[in-house]
Amino acid sequence: MKIEQCTALVTGAASGLGEATTRALVTSGARVAMLDMDGERGDRISTELGDNVIFCRADISSESDLDQAIAAIKAAFGTLHIVVNCAGLGGSVKIVGRDGIMPMEMFTSRVNVNLIGTFTVIRAAAPLMMENSPNEEGERGVIINTASIAAFDGQVGQSAYASTKGGIVSMTLPLTREFAPNGIRVMAILPGIADTPLLAKNSPEVLDRLAKQVPFPPRLAKPSEFAALACHIVENPYLNGESIRLDGGLRMGFGRK
Length: 257
Ligand SMILES: NC(=O)c1ccc[n+]([C@@H]2O[C@H](COP(=O)([O-])OP(=O)(O)OC[C@H]3O[C@@H](n4cnc5c(N)ncnc54)[C@H](O)[C@@H]3O)[C@@H](O)[C@H]2O)c1
Hints:
The protein is an alpha/beta fold. It has one domain (3-194, 222-246): Rossmann fold. The protein is built from 8 helices and 9 strands. A 7-stranded parallel sheet has the order 3-2-1-4-7-8-9, with helices on both faces. Strand 1 (7-11), helix 1 and strand 2 form a beta-alpha-beta unit. Helix 3 packs parallel to helix 4 (104-130) and helix 4 (104-130) runs parallel beside helix 6. It is globular, with a radius of gyration of 18 Å. The structure holds nicotinamide-adenine-dinucleotide. Nicotinamide-adenine-dinucleotide binds at residues 11-12, 14-18, 36-38, 59-61, 86-90, 113, 117, 146, 148, 191, 193-194, 196-199.
């Protein structure tokens, strides 16, 4: 699909990978609805980006928030072609750790936001995407979900996070098959380690150690590299039903200290 003719919904758009994707889509001429729980940053960035951008403060795990956001997109733009799901929670806690037994909330909140939230966005957005007139290729839309290499290389403490990302990888093919008759493609991107506020909680020493594990280039990914891949997926109609690692060749090991 040609980005400049599209309307996009980006979740997690007030930070990191979602913010970079929003900026790249706007630069390429799309109209973008930014969705995030962070109202302050969301308002600031959407105001900076101008008239082709709206901001919807919403929790992706809330059906009613999503219904309101889709209604706002319909009112502002009338259509929706692209969904890029970036909103997510990180975190790493051992089941039995120094602070005792992992609270169940650690697990359920990751599942609610990362997995159920991603699905809730797709469920809310799909009917509006299906209304689009097909382009010359028959395309009506594209959905890009953000998983993680933790779907395959999860580390100690990542049982919650990794299982949500594995779920996103697993839903890619059934969604691709379900939406194929509608001309809507579904893809997942699996970042390795990217330089965003999600990782900024780690000390510079930890980040440096992580960066050195990346075969090439031995550094964290730039958010703009994620955005560039998302834009390419939108523009390449033959990319469908696949999960792409964006990790500089990184394969996380057992990590015994
Ligand atoms: N940064 C990395 O190294 C890395 C690696 C692999 C996967 N990822 C994935 O990429 C995605 C984006 O991560 P990031 O690094 O840009 O993180 P980030 O923390 O910079 O941004 C995430 C955004 O999501 C928003 N958000 C969180 N919960 C939400 C909810 N319930 N509803 C709406 N918005 C919500 C936050 O407010 C924030 O603006 C996440 O799904 C993350 O798991 C990141």
